[in-house]
Amino acid sequence: MSLLKVQNLSVSFPTPGGRVNVVDDLSFELGQERLGIVGESGSGKSMTGRAILRLIRAPGRVSGNVAFDGTELTGLSQRQMRAIRGAKISMIMQDPRYSLNPVMNVGTQIEEALSTHERLPRRAMKHRVREMLEAVRINDPDRVARMYAHELSGGMGQRVMIAMMLIPRPRLLIADEPTSALDVSVQGDVLRLIDDLVRDNGMGLILISHDLALVARYCDRILVMNAGRVVESCAADDLEHAKHPYTRGLLAAVPQMHETRAELPVMDRTKWAGT
Predict the structure, then answer these.
(1) Of the candidates 197, 154, 156, the residue with the CA atom closest to the CA atom of residue 175
(2) Which of 13, 81, 251, 265 has the fewest Cβ atoms within 10 Å of its own Cβ atom?
């Protein structure tokens, strides 16, 4: 059964030469699976995630249709959308330092994310927060709940963000470059954590990244985007056999562990322009 259905989605912004589509006539469906959206910076992948949640503000314009669990989102009021965001669809942003409130402790912020969508007695609220912090593998959750954003390491801050986004128990998680601000040593831990939580809770996942190897490892299916369009769609296991010249170029530009090439190849866009 389709959890999310995107049809002819476009996002445009004004420029001196006229409006430009940063997402251009995009269509795809998502079930209870892990979908990776990859591409270079500026390919439109992050704008796709924001457009699904209707987070694009003027002068940006969005057209097309987005249906979640049978409900058309494009026709909902902002009040109705606020009931969807967090409770049914959550989004993890790139850097927790810019997403966490610096003057509220961690526990209060996670409680706020839950109380927006669910009313619980105070003791039950505290218990849910503690359970969620334990679920994201934070030792001593009571101590961490009393901490502020500036007291958290990058990895711990990202775990707190994941806890905040998942405590309302959404059905779809959009993770936008969730490890871009983290050291390589903790990237794998965070991604395995997201993967385990998605599998255990039967959620859908959209993982947005520029790292092809990463999405191939953690996703079931991959969309490759360039200039706002999907140029290739394939199973994650088949990525290394991709046929589109743009995808082949991205794969060729990835350094190998035991690199023997004197120079990494540069994208030759003349080979695939207009395809």
Answers:
(1) 197
(2) 265
User: Treating both helix axes as pointing N-terminal to C-terminal, what angle do 154-166 and 106-115 enclose, rounded to 10 degrees?
Assistant: 20
Q: Is 128 helix (H, G, I), strand (E, B) or coil?
A: helix
Q: What is the CATH number of the domain that holds 136?
A: 3.40.50.300
Indicate the pLDDT class of residue 8, thresholds 50, 70 and 90: very high
Going through 142-220 in order, the beta strands assigned E by DSSP cover: 172-176, 204-209
What is the tally of structural domains in the chain? 1
How much is the pLDDT for 141?
A: 93
The model's pLDDT over 218-261, given as tens digits with 9 standing for 90+, comes to: 999 999 999 999 999 999 999 989 989 889 888 888 777 787 88
Residue 127: CA count within 13 A, CB half-sphere:
5
Q: The tokens of 198 are what? A: 């998605």
Per-position DSSP letters for 160-200, written without gaps between them: HHHHHHHTT--SEEEEESTTTTS-HHHHHHHHHHHHHHHHH
Domain that holds residue 44: 4-271
- In this prediction, residue 96 carries a pLDDT of 63
Region of 190 (left: φ > 0; alpha: ψ -120 to 50; beta: rest) is alpha
Q: Tell me whether strands 172-176 and 204-209 are parallel, antiparallel or unpaired.
A: parallel
- Would the pLDDT of 273 be above 60? no
